[in-house]
What we know:
Elements: H1 3-28, H2 33-69, H3 72-87
Helix pairs in contact: 1-2, 2-3
Amino acid sequence: MRTETKRIADARLARIEGQIRAVRKMVEEDRYCVDVVRQVQAARSALSSLETVIVEDHVETCVQASLESGSAEARREKVTELVSILTGKKK
């Protein structure tokens, strides 16, 4: 993972961590259910956004390197990995 991607990921993870703490506090305080759900949705959206950043970095680094390597096996492996994460299936 590139340094810039790590920096972005760390900042987003800090924000997500804060969102999760806020959800926990809302539950403890018996806050209105719809408000809690909205916060859960915001955290899920933030995780999804982080996932996109990481996958894009993976494509631009690891996948690109395997495509340039000349190894059919390396290319096949990276394509299989991408398909599995994009479809939500475990490898």
